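Thread: quick sanity check before group meeting

JM: Hey all, I'm pulling together slides for Thursday and realized we never actually wrote out the predicted structure for the chain we discussed last week. Dropping the sequence here so it's in one place. If anyone has concerns about the input, flag it before I start.
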Amino acid sequence: MRMTPEEMVARVLYRDGLMLVVDKPPGMPVHRGPKGGGAFEDHFDALRYGLPRAPSLAHRLDKDTTGCLVLGRHRKALASHYRKGCRHYRE
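JM (edit): ok, ran it. Output follows.
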């Protein structure tokens, strides 16, 4: 499944300085598998919004799962997300 940059941007549900929340479609793997093929993360460059790097995954969803995918806009954002998640599970 190929997407234009405009189609990828249209899937953004939420954006702030740290995170993006994107609507992942069903039937598209988040990561490229060992056999190759397209993946959802191939389109993350369209979500840079002026930053030097594309956002990174904060978690994954299965290929056939549709839903909200959280992306960190930079490394500090991802570290903050993980710290908050770990604290949540300890409580």
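AS: nice. Residues 86-91 have pLDDT under 50 and may be disordered. The radius of gyration is 13 Å.
JM: adding both to the slides.
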